[in-house]
Design brief:
Elements: H1 2-16, H2 19-40, H3 45-71
Helix pairs in contact: 1-3, 2-3
Length: 72
Amino acid sequence: MNITLQSAKMIGAGLATIGLTGVGAGVGIVFGALVLAFARNPALKQQLFTYTILGFALTEAIALFALMMAFD
């Protein structure tokens, strides 16, 4: 009985980390958009970087929630 419960917890933790793949794609999209926007209008460098850091932080928050669920 105890082995079944432990293996179910391990499977659940593995499934909870699937959300990290989406976070990896999201971070790539955020920084890819920064490169494209900077190439179009270099004068907005500081404002674009501020928005990028905000987008990165929000995307990484999802990763932290997924890891929190995995380790719970």
